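Final paragraph of the annual report: two paired records, presented back to back.
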Amino acid sequence: MLSVSLIIIYVEISYLMKRMKLFFLAFSVVFVTGCSLPVNNSKRINPEKNKPVVVTTFTVLADLAKNVAGEKLTIQSITKPGAEIHSYQFTPSDVIKASKAQLIIENGLGLELWFKKFTATAGNVPTITLSDGIKPLAIEEDKYKGKPNPHAWMSPQKAMLYVDKLVETFIEIDPLNESTYRSNGNNYKKELMNLDNELRLTLSKIPLKKRVLVSCEGAFTYLANDYGMQEAYLWPVNAESQVTPKRMANLIKTIKEKEVPTIFCESSVSSEAQKQVAIESGATFGGNLYVDSLSKSDGPAPTYLKLLRHNVQLIVNGLTSGS
């Protein structure tokens, strides 16, 4: 009986020691990721491919970066396809990923509300803001009067400026591959120029009086400005996606006055309120547009170019219905 008791005590002690090891391991991960310690540059190389690692805040920027980087850099996005990026809650694994990068890329203009806290936690990693130097369009709603609309990438013309900044930044961190980055950047800008012309031609099919784009978020200001459209929405930015009775009533009134046949919502937020607006206004709900996030690879918007083509075709189909 004594030997059996000793065995039981031994097993219990072993179990407790294993639990304590797991506890201290978890504690050490949280402590390290929370202390903002500088990261050794040698850890910022992808060990499998021996490439510098570059991290972006969301998938659209990752796609732009991949088109410039080609095979020379490892590009990773913090947020996944479908994520809402304005008020994203980053995780310990996000912090660990960023702490191993040579560069972190953000959009700026107040888009990523979590960015400063995120980079402070990730440690001494260089950052760039792609919207720096771009003259932003302002949010029109009174509460936000004068604040910049952050969705500048929704204009292919502005996206070309993003590409220029990516080229110069990648050359700084990897000067040996300068010719590759410049060549890739120039080729991608040609695609963006062609896309700009294509979108202008496609949107010109909408009768002038019907060129009113109604969405959940005011994320299409740059696209509307480029191609001669009006914009209306339920809320100005997803960071405050509260649907008030006043906002809903005003949007319903606008839709009726302008006889808008079809309205839309963004893929990264709930469309339920907008579907109710459609019912109340007599408009058709035309589906989801992509702005803050690409779709998964088998979806309609797995790249930036396809994102804009998908959006514009959906808009044209909806606004020319019954013409």
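The closing record of the year follows.
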Amino acid sequence: TMFMIKHLKLRWKLLIMIVPLVLVPMILSTIIIGSVAIKQIYQEVTIASKADLEHMSVFTHDLLKGYHQQLEFHSVELQAERRRKLGDLTELAYRLVESQYRQFADGILSEEQAKGYAYKSLKDASVGEFGYIYVMNPSGDLIVHVDREGENVIDATDESGRTFIREIAQNAVQSKTAETLFIRYPWSNRSDGYRLQEKEVAYRYFRPWDWIIAAGSNLDNEERQEP
């Protein structure tokens, strides 16, 4: 090999000496640059992917937050609408009783007749498909009721021990004239197998006859009806 190199022309000798000096650094530079480039690309891709994931996370969080707020608003809106309707029904029931009382006060009807007409009208009334109007006195006697009429329910309590009938009676007696009050409580009827259902009730106190006039709606059934 050395003999062959000695007999080569100077040009080829120079090429043999120079080419390794040029090619080796080029190859090494290519490998190094390629390695750095791949690492840089990987880092940039990782950063971009991380940014996309963070963006998606923020977007998803905002979307869920907005949906939750929309549901809360819808729930509040439904509650306000339900209370308005229950309040209106209680007002109508109150006016009906008041008109019969005036018939008695004006001597047109006896008190027994006036109460009888009021009783029949309220007994036949309903609040949608899952509600009804009822009347009780501050002692807890159900004077008008779709299912448990004649019972005394003053000691009824919810699962926390709250005596909600006593609460209704006390608040009604202490209420201002023409004031409508609201309350929620669990209730059971014989016709439902005494299954507890959450009710929302609007009520007013009619002082001349010591009647608490109420319109209530079963919330459990209403929720099942919603889409």
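Helices lie at 2-6, 10-105, 111-124, 164-174, 219-225. This concludes the annual technical report; the extension proposal builds directly on these records.
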